[in-house]
Specification:
The chain folds into two domains: 2-85, Beta Barrel (Elongation Factor Tu (Ef-tu), domain 3); 97-226, Nucleotide-binding domain of ferredoxin-NADP reductase (FNR) module (Rossmann fold, 3-Layer(aba) Sandwich), CATH 3.40.50. The chain is built from four helices and 14 strands. It has helices spanning 65-71, 107-112, 132-135, 169-182; strands spanning 2-11, 14-20, 30-34, 44-52, 55-61, 78-85, 97-102, 120-126, 141-147, 162-166, 185-189, 205-208, 211-214, 221-223. InterPro entries: Cyt_c3_hydrogenase_gsu, Dihydroorotate_DH_ele_sf, Dihydroorotate_DH_Fe-S-bd, FAD-bd_FR_type, FNR_nucleotide-bd, PyrK_electron_transfer, Riboflavin_synthase-like_b-brl. It comes from Urinicoccus massiliensis. Its cofactor is FAD; [2Fe-2S] cluster.
Length: 230
């Protein structure tokens, strides 16, 4: 069980849940977070938004009953979490890096920025940009926020050496195609529904170039060479 420190509401449907956590996660890893309602048995996989001095931040969007319950939790309550799980990003502090995010796919790049040198360029596409700029203003980010449209059209792919992406499949496949065309290094963080979070249930398998992969165990981060598509 983890003690809730606070909840930050970024906009009407997006929150950051802050918890006490002793284990230090790697950028790109995730936690399984379990609703208190016993009728909702499965946990929700939520990427690490940030971690600093024993405080774990988890960014989530209210999209159903489980996340609606999370949004009503208050400081001082206990919450069941398991993790950190999965294979995270490989930080390259000496490369010129760009992160391309869609929706809550923004989450892992905030923590990743702590492992990169200088200011991290993040291209962020979202349906509702309200509140993000103010909430993230103290992080070492060069943040380009685009509301609607295709965020990939704003990226100069020739200007960077290393790319990271997380978000909707359509967006990630567009990034994957461009990185192949430009011969750029890329790591993708896949978003899948998960049952257990540690590879036992096979609920989150995806097709890799060398057979089926468990997103929770073999990923969620994959190099572009491991996948035909996101």
């Amino acid at each position: 069980m983890a003690k809730i420190i606070r909840q930050d509401q970024i906009n009407p449907h997006t929150y950051v849940l802050w918890l006490e956590e002793k284990s230090v996660p790697k950028p790109g890893q995730f936690y399984m977070v379990y609703p208190k309602d016993g009728a909702k048995l499965l946990g929700r996989p939520i990427s690490v938004f940030d971690y600093h001095e024993g405080q774990l931040g988890l960014l989530y969007e209210v999209v159903g009953g489980g996340t609606e319950e999370f949004s009503k939790l208050e400081a001082g309550e206990d919450l069941r979490i398991l993790g950190p799980y999965g294979r995270g990003f490989t930080p390259y502090p000496d490369k010129k890096v760009a992160c391309i995010a869609g929706g809550v796919g923004l989450a892992p790049f905030i923590y990743l920025s702590r492992f990169l040198k200088g200011t991290t360029r993040v291209y962020f596409g979202t349906r509702d940009a309200q509140g993000f700029g103010d909430y993230l203003k103290d992080y070492p980010l060069d943040l380009k926020i685009q509301e609607g449209g295709y965020i990939t059209e704003a990226v100069d792919f020739q200007a960077y050496d290393q790319f990271y992406t997380c978000g909707p499949r359509v967006m990630m496949n567009a990034v994957l195609d461009r990185c192949r065309q430009e011969d750029k290094d890329l790591e993708l963080s896949l978003e899948e529904r998960m049952g257990c979070g540690f590879g036992a249930c096979l609920a989150c398998s995806c097709q890799g170039k060398e057979g089926r992969k468990k997103v929770c165990l073999d990923g969620p981060v994959f190099a572009k060479e491991e996948l035909d598509h996101a």
